[in-house]
Amino acid sequence: MTMITLALSKGRIFDETMPLLAAAGIKVLEDPETSRKLILPTNQPDVRVVMVRATDVPTYVQYGGADIGVTGKDTLIEHGGQGLFRPLDLNIAKCRVSVAVRNDFDYEHAVTQGSRLKVATKYTHIAREFFATKGVHVDLIKLYGSMELAPLTGMADAIVDLVSTGNTLKANNLVEVERIMDISSHLVVNQAALKLKQEPLRHIIDAFASAIRKD
Ligand code: PRP
């Protein structure tokens, strides 16, 4: 029996991948929100799900800890995508990466004046590339979460973060001043596994492809 291991992360990616798995005839038998298990069984004896941190999904697939995974385009860009085949944009977990500042900060003035901007973010690759293209000098401060706090505490002028509804920004008196890119989740596949486990992986990729919502 050829075992297929799928890497997922908790939350929207897990929830929105379930209908796609259903299209492949796969049902996950435990809820990651309540189970302490890191390996979740499915109704298919040869398919299992490993629950990993969102930022670790590309790494698990790259090194063969998982054969396939679902990961945000943001995470994929920061990872670099080495060793990964990327067959499908799943059009799920949609959001955007944006620049946000305190609502009393004059961003336009700051970027046109040629001064250095202090930017706090977990997305250092995306932020560096974006501001380099704009010709704005930035000092990047790497954070791992709660980016919204950085401008509020005076540690940074701006943040680069995911925005979905905009509620988190609003609740913290921040405003979105630039949209850097639209984000959705992608299917990633280990390149060696794609050759060695071609048939079962093809089945999953094809089922996912036919179940993607177009909007
Ligand atoms: C993301 C992001 C924002 C929030 C935006 O965090 O970092 O904090 O969602 O969503 P909204 O625009 O709908 O308010 P997430 O919950 O993914 O967790 P994280 O803090 O681990 O990044």
The CATH fourth-level homologous superfamily of the largest domain: Periplasmic binding protein-like II
Helix content: 25-40%
- Alpha-carbon distance between the termini? 38 Å
Poorly predicted ranges: none
Globally, the shape reads elongated
Rg from alpha-carbon coordinates:
19 Å
| Bound ions, cofactors and other small molecules, one mention each | 1-O-pyrophosphono-5-O-phosphono-alpha-D-ribofuranose
The CATH class designation of the largest domain is: Alpha Beta
CATH architecture of the largest domain: 3-Layer(aba) Sandwich
Major β-sheet profile: 6 strands, mixed
Order of helices and strands: EHEEHEHEEHEHEHEHEEHH
Count of individual helical segments = 9
Structural class: alpha/beta
What is the count of distinct domains?
Answer: 2
Number of strands: 11
